[in-house]
Amino acid sequence: MKDSKQILSDHKVSVTNPRILVIEALLENNNPLTVDELQLKLKNKVAKSTLYRVLNDLKKINILNEFTNPENATVVELLLEDDSHHHHLFCSDCGEIIDIQMGDEFERTLSKEIKRLEKKFNFSIEDHRLELFGKCTDLCENCS
Amino acid sequence: MKDSKQILSDHKVSVTNPRILVIEALLENNNPLTVDELQLKLKNKVAKSTLYRVLNDLKKINILNEFTNPENATVVELLLEDDSHHHHLFCSDCGEIIDIQMGDEFERTLSKEIKRLEKKFNFSIEDHRLELFGKCTDLCENCS
DNA sequence: GAATAAATGAGAATTATTCTCATTTTTTAT
DNA sequence: ATAAAAAATGAGAATAATTCTCATTTATTC
After folding, report:
1. Angstroms from B5 CA to nearest CA on chain A
2. Which nucleotide is nearest to B50 (CA to C1')?
3. Is B33 in contact with B26 (CB distance < 8 Å)?
4. What fold, for A1-83?
5. Rounded distance in angstroms from the CA atom of residue A82 to the C1' atom of nucleotide C17
6. Which CATH superfamily is domain A84-144 in?
7. Out of B103, B124, B125, whose CB is closest to A113?
8. What integer best gives the mean pLDDT of chain B?
């Protein structure tokens, strides 16, 4: 597993206990967590205000991705250098969020479309996000 | 312009003044509005609690699309029968949100990918959302 | 290791949204 | 058209998520 202290010093920010604990909690999970789930994992070890501050710190150094699930709860995940571009699949039954990669053909087609839209709307498009919504049919223990 | 009273009665819900005003405010704009912007447009005419209730009512009858902008503010737009499937483009300078349509080739490629992912994760995927982020370079009066 | 700078914890403040309930409006049935 | 019943509204209280404040603690620098 990656070294949380190393991650922090690589990004030239102070290495503190709350930051280490938050990064470790996020590293333990392969998939994104809601802030509530994260808070639970850290129970008592990091103050609520500190947790939010640390999340903002990690966003500032660009190693945290933040988005919302279909219930509008905030979801976070670590984004380390070697993670490649990915999207998310949400289960509306159990709330699970799965990281997905789209195939090359998809990303190529999307790039073409983005070029077209940039011209059409005179925009410079810098990023995109694709979210898929559905139900995990029998994969997960929460969904029957 | 569409008749807001008609829309409500077509969906078998009571035709009330706050609902009419909210629908009309949304009809006036082609692009989505944040709840704050909507509240401003309705200034004094609809109570805050009623506005939120009406938005929930419209969601229940499936004529309202709700999502969040990159600042996590709630954004809403009317979704009437003849509106076709579309996505959103966000300007990070002025906050404008533009409805966009993707070309057929894109949607075809996406469908193929979705089938692949359904098998891979044993999911039934029912919906998707694509969001593009960028800056409108000289289109808009707010962006220099 | 001392001085300086930065981060933390606890809880107050803020913001967005939902809830409560007495009153008003709309619908239904005559 | 009217009365009774049902549903929606307004005002503000309650709740939830997030940010802010500030005295204390912890990290960094030299």
Report:
1. 30
2. D9
3. yes
4. Arc Repressor Mutant, subunit A (1.10.10)
5. 39
6. Ferric-uptake regulator, C-terminal dimerisarion domain (3.30.1490.190)
7. B103
8. 92
Q: Do B139 and A121 touch (CB under 8 A)?
A: yes
Each of the 144 residues of chain B gets a pLDDT tens digit; together they read: 689 999 999 999 999 999 999 999 999 987 899 999 999 999 889 999 999 999 999 999 999 999 999 999 999 999 987 667 899 999 998 889 999 999 999 999 999 999 999 999 999 999 999 999 999 986 566 565
B133 touches chain A (CB under 8 A): yes
Distance CA A10, CA A3 (A): 11
For A1-16, give the DSSP string.
Answer: ---HHHHHHHTT----
Which A residues 53-72 touch B at CB under 8 Å? 68, 72
CB contact B116 to A (< 8 Å): yes
**Which residues are bridge partners to B132 per DSSP?**
A128, B89
- What residue segments make up the domains of chain A, in order of their start? 1-83, 84-144
